[in-house]
Write a structure and sequence with these properties.
globular; mainly beta; single chain; 0% helix; 7-stranded mixed beta sheet; 11 strands
Length: 112
Amino acid sequence: QVQLVESGGGLVQPGGSLRLSCAASGNIAGSWTLGWDRQAPGKQLEMVARLSGAGTTNYPASGKGRFTISRDNAKNTLYLQMNRLQPEDPAVYYCYVPGYTWGQGTQVTVSS
């Protein structure tokens, strides 16, 4: 089974940027849908971004225009570029293949 490992989380000031990476231990088929979700303390898991195998992206209103999901199939890596981070963005961010596998998460903190 392919394993996913996130990296790139950390502490950033409001308005700052972070780029999360999700490295797969094996081949990520180009046809797979991949995604990022997040979970803040005491809150439910929330969709952040999704990228279909056809290249279609989907973002909720909270991240539209600020977050960009992308993939590099040659590197078996999924990315999430997050710009203009806001106080409501802190959470553990997870990458996943729907119905198949999840990463262990990476913490994002936004604070001045």
